[in-house]
Amino acid sequence: xxxxxxxxxxxxxxxxxxxxxxxxxxxxxxxxxxxxxxxxxxxxxxxxxxxxxxxxxxxxxxxxxxxxxxxxxxxxxxxxx
Length: 81
Known about the structure:
Elements: H1 2-8, E1 13-18, H2 21-26, H3 38-50, E2 52-57, H4 64-79
Parallel strand pairs: 1-2
């Protein structure tokens, strides 16, 4: 859904970093996609071929800054209630 939204908004250069190695593999192995998502996934792959698209696997440990910021935001929201 994010790739479709980016396409509609005019983004033509997308860099996807993901800590899920299966998701990264799904861009090259179509058989990893569940049957109920295959139609939407085909559309996503078509969009990715028309733009400059890169997908990278990052390890969870390398994503610690984002995780820390997300937990701070959650903590702040809980403190205000």
